[in-house]
Amino acid sequence: MPDQRPDLRLRVVQSRFQNAFFHELAEAIVDEATRLGVPADVVTSVVDTEPDDVFVLLPTHEYAVLEGGQFLEDPRIAKRCIGITAEQPSSSHFDANVYYGHKLGAVFDFSTLSVKRYQDQGIAAEHLQFGWTPTWDRFVPDATGHDLDVLFMGCATPRREHALSKIGRQLWSRRSRLILSDNAAPNTTDHAAFVTGERKRELLAGTKVLVNVHQADEPYFEWLRAAEAAHCGAVMLSETSLHTEPFRHDEHLVFSALSSMPHALAALLEDPDRLNRLRRNAYALIKENPFSAGVEKLVSVAHDLRKTHEGHRLKLGPSRTQPFRQKVTPSWEREPESIDAVRQAIREIRLDIIDLRRRVSTDPTIDPTPVVDYRTPAWHRRTPRVSVIMALYNHEPYVVEALESAASGTYGDLEIIVVDDCSTDGSNETVRRWMDRSPHVPMTLVRHPVNRGLPRSRNEAFKHARGELVFVLDSDNAIVPTGLERLVEAIDADPEASFAYGVLQRFDSTGPVGLMGVWPWEPWRLRYGNYIDAMALIKASALKKLEGYTLDRRLHGWEDYELWCRVAESGGHAAHVQTIVGRYRQSATSMLSLTNISQDAGFDAVRESCPRLMSGALELQVDVLGDWLSNIRAERESRDVWLSNWEAQNA
Hints:
CATH superfamily of the largest domain: Spore Coat Polysaccharide Biosynthesis Protein SpsA, Chain A
CATH class of the largest domain: Alpha Beta
Helix content: 40-55%
Distance between the termini: 26 Å
Largest sheet: 10 strands, mixed
Structural class: alpha/beta
Radius of gyration: 29 Å
CATH topology of the largest domain: Spore Coat Polysaccharide Biosynthesis Protein SpsA, Chain A
CATH architecture of the largest domain: Alpha-Beta Complex
Shape: elongated
C-alpha cells in the first residue's frame, strides 16, 4: 500500500501559456505522486490555497515570466513552494532561477551539474533524477521496422545548425528528419516545428538514432532527452557531455565530439547489432531507476515544508490575460534613420550601374529575342513530370556541379532548361559540352542575346518547361541526390500545396557552415523577411496563375521572396520537407549582398503587392485557426481517454 500522507497536497503550478513539454512533465509528477498515495494535481488557474498545500513551480522562471510572481514574492507562500528547474547554467534563465531560488522553500534540478552551480550560489538545491515512468514507456523489445534512421529535435540555434550541416551527407542519404523549434515564444502545443505528447513518443519509437547537439558551448547533458529516447527505444548519439551518470558511453548511448560525429553516426547506422544492444541497455537502465524514487524524495521535502510553515488561506493565480509573445517589430515599421537613406541611395546607384552596363554592352543591331541554342537527343522522346529550370550568368566554375546534381539524383523523371543570360565567361560552352556528354538527359539550352536579368531568365525558362512541377535551381547551387524525390513526395502528400521546399545546407569554400529553410510554412514569418530560398518545387499551374517572377526593379534579389508572399496573399500554402534537400553556396558576391544594402524599397514593393499579408491580417487568421485546431485536438484527446477508461471498466 502506498504511504498515505493526508496532511499534504502537492500542487504543480503551470502557466496556461508555457512550453508543452513541462505540461507532460507535470502530469508525470502528479501520476507518480498519486501512486505514492499523495493527493496531487496540476494548477493552471486561480486557486484558493489550503493549509496542507505545497506548491511545485515547474519551471520557476518561466511561470514568473508568463504569469507573474504571485507564488514568489510573498514569503508566506514562497517558502511553501518547490522550484523545479531544467535550464543550462550558462543561460540567462538559469540566472533568473538563482534569483528565485533564494526565495523558495526548496529547489530541485534534473542535472547534477546545475545542482552544483546552485549550491555554489548558496542555494541548497537537490538532484531530481528522472527515470522510468509508465506513461512514457513505448519500448518494443524486438522492434525491427523504423520509419526514420536519424531524428533531431530541439530549438534552433546557430551552433546546432552548424553542427547539423556537418552531418548533412548522412542526413540526406538516410531517412532523416530535422524538427527545429523556434523558442522566441513558448511552444504551447503540438505543431509542425514542435512535437509533444503521444506524437513525440511515437516518433521516437520509430527512430533508430536520435542526434543530440548542445545549444551552447557548455557540455550540458540533456538528461531528459536521453530518458525520453530510452523509454521509446531510440539510441541517442550525443555531443560529448559532463555529468551523464548513470548513462555510460557505448553501453547505453554514444558520445562523440562534433568533429567526429559524421563518422560516429555512420558507424552506428551500419551496425544493427550494436544499435539493438544500446537500445536494450538504455531501457534496462531507465527501468532500474524509476521516476517514483525521485518523486518520493520531492514528496518528502514537501512534507517537511508543510510541517515547518504555517498554512495560509489565500487566493492565488495567474495575472496574465493574453498569451506571452515576444514583441518583434518588422524592420519596415521602425522609424527610419539617416543612414537608411544613404544605404538606399547606394543600392539605387549600384542598380543604375548594372542597367547602364547592360545598355552599353548591348549592340543595338542585335535582336534581343531569346533563342534555343541547343537540345539533347532525349528532349523529344518524352515529357517528364518535373522541369528543372536554371538561370545562368557567369557561373562557369559551378554550373556543371549544379547540372550533375539534378541529373544524377534518385528522381529521374525530369528535364532541364537552362537560360544563359548572355554570359561573358565560358558558361555557355561549358553547358554545351556537358549536354554532349549527357545525351540521355532531356535538356534545352536557351540563350539571351542580351543580358536581361534573373527574373526574366527564370520566366523564360518556365515558358519552355513541359512538366507539371517546376524546380528552381540556381547555377551555383546543388540539389542533393535524394532532394528532388523528397520534394515530389511532399507535393504528392499535400495536393493543395502550391509548392514544396526543404532544409538547405549552407556551404562555402571551407565546407558546410549552417542550415537555412528550417521553419515550416508560416505566413506571419514573411512579414519580417524571407526564410525560404528560391530552391523549391513549384506547381506549374500555381506559377502560371501568379504570372511568374516579378520584374519590379525594387525587388532585385527578392523575386523569390515576393513570390512566396503572393502565394500567402492568395490563400495558398507550401509543404515543408524537414530534411536537407539542397546545398546553398554562400558567397560575399552573391545577389543578396547587393539586396541587403537596403531593404526599404523591397519591403515597399511587397507591401503594395501583398497588403493583407504585410498588414498582419493573415497572422490573425492563422492565430484563430491555430486556437480552433488546438481546441479540437484537446476535445478529441479527452474523448479518447474517456473511451479507453470506459472500455477498460466494461471489458
